[in-house]
Amino acid sequence: MRRTAKELDASVDGLVARCRAAGMNMTPQRLGIYRALLESYDHPSPEALYDRVRSQMPSISLATIYKTLDTLVELGFASELPSVGDTKRYDANMEHHHHLVCRSCNAVEDFEDEALSAVKAPRRLNGFQPEYVSIHVHGLCRRCSQAKA
Ligand SMILES: [Zn+2]
Ligand SMILES: [Zn+2]
What we know:
Layout lengths: L4 H17 L6 H11 L7 H9 L7 H14 L3 E2 L9 E2 L6 E5 L5 E4 L2 H4 L18 E4 L2 H7 L1
Parallel strand pairs: 3-5
Antiparallel strand pairs: 1-2, 3-4
The protein binds zinc ion (2 copies).
């Protein structure tokens, strides 16, 4: 599901308010990175995000991308996906959802499904405290499965 311009602005405003409340400095660069993440639906790696924001902010560094993504995760505005491929991947969709993960091209797509969302964590988790269950369905994306056919 694509975010509307209005939803995008609301998310950015939310981040600005959250930072202000926390006494944190929100730079235009950080906001630009957050906006680029909100406009990305492929769960980009820091490197992919860097390529996207560099066209608008040529002076930005990859280190700033890493630091900003860490901050966004800390503030609860983004999450880091459990490992997919060999680089970290980030998600600005904080609604409860699931993922379709392609083992060939490492594409990650959001997936919403009532049956999956109804799945409860098992009661015995060896002392682990569950917060939510997010399911990764692994396989081949449409493009990769068509390429193999
Ligand atoms: Zn694929
Ligand atoms: Zn996602």
